[in-house]
Amino acid sequence: MKQTQKNKPIDLQSATWHDVKNGGYSFAVLPWGATEPHNYHLPYLTDWHIAHAVAVDSVRKAQTQYEVCGIVLPPIPLGAQNPGQKELPFCIHTRFETQRMILTDIVDSLHFQGFRLLVLLNAHGGNSFKPMVRDLAFEYPEMTIVCVDWMTIEPQKDYFEEFDDHAGEMETSVMLHYFPELVRLEQAGDGAFTPFNIEGLNKKVGWMPRRWDKTTRDTGVGDPRKATAEKGKRYIEVITDKIAKLMNDLVRESVY
User: Fold this and answer.
1) How far apart are the first and last CA of the chain?
2) CATH class of the region 17-252
3) Burial call 208-217: b when 16+ CB within 10 Å, e when fewer
4) Mapped to the 3 state alphabet, what secondary structure does 55-114 carry?
């Protein structure tokens, strides 16, 4: 079957050289997660799984609804962690410099191949790519690099009963939607947490990393026990619609 914009492979986890060698791709998407505990009921690679799933859904919508075609790169499982997390078994903390080198090498490869648009789809709250992207804007002025933090696009309040900061109702619902076989909700802790003693830190007047061992008992922040796949589907449909629209606009419109 001859490929059209509406049926081109969009994910490098399954695409072959035969699939992509004739080009036709307008942009690439780099999902970025982390490797860390997520309460007792979600896998260590929760952010990695969600980043990839949201990227694939968004690119598929951009292709079918807008006829712009992108490719989803392999997701990165290396995130920045807080004190009190790095001590936990198999939790991997990745330095800013390491993340910057990885991102730079990916941008350099894409730029060399002629790509000029990269969407960086982040699923881990500890990651901060803005300073890196600012530096890369000087090194690769022809490249447009756009950061998307999927979990900040749509407010939680209209979809969930309990606010989710980490492995709570929202993130668990999204995992139940995408990967129900990976969720062990019957094992979930209540996600209770201890805030700072200082009001200005809780109200974001100032910022410092939380000590995870003093913040949470089960590594979660937010109660996941009211999570459902239906809530996750409803929430993620709105988010992927918005990301797909952004992808289309980035391809078809001038940024300025």
Assistant:
1) 39
2) alpha beta
3) eebebeebbe
4) HHHHHHHHHHHHCCCEEECCCECCECCCCCCCCCCCCEECCHHHHHHHHHHHHHHHHHCC
Is the four-CA dihedral 213, 50, 15, 251 of positive or negative sign? negative
- Judge residue 159's burial from the number of C-beta atoms within 10 Å of its C-beta, 0-12 exposed, 13-18 middle, 19 or more buried: middle
- Helix H or strand E encompassing 26: none
pLDDT in tens, the chain (256 residues): 345 566 789 999 999 999 999 999 999 999 999 999 999 999 999 999 999 999 999 999 999 999 999 999 999 999 999 999 999 999 999 999 999 999 999 999 999 999 999 999 999 999 999 999 999 999 999 999 999 999 999 999 999 999 999 999 999 999 999 999 999 999 999 999 999 999 999 999 999 999 999 999 999 999 999 999 999 999 999 999 999 999 999 999 999 9
Whether the CB-CB separation of 150 and 239 falls below 8 Å is answered with: yes
Strands (E), the chain: 27-32, 70-72, 117-122, 144-149
Domain boundaries, the chain: 17-252
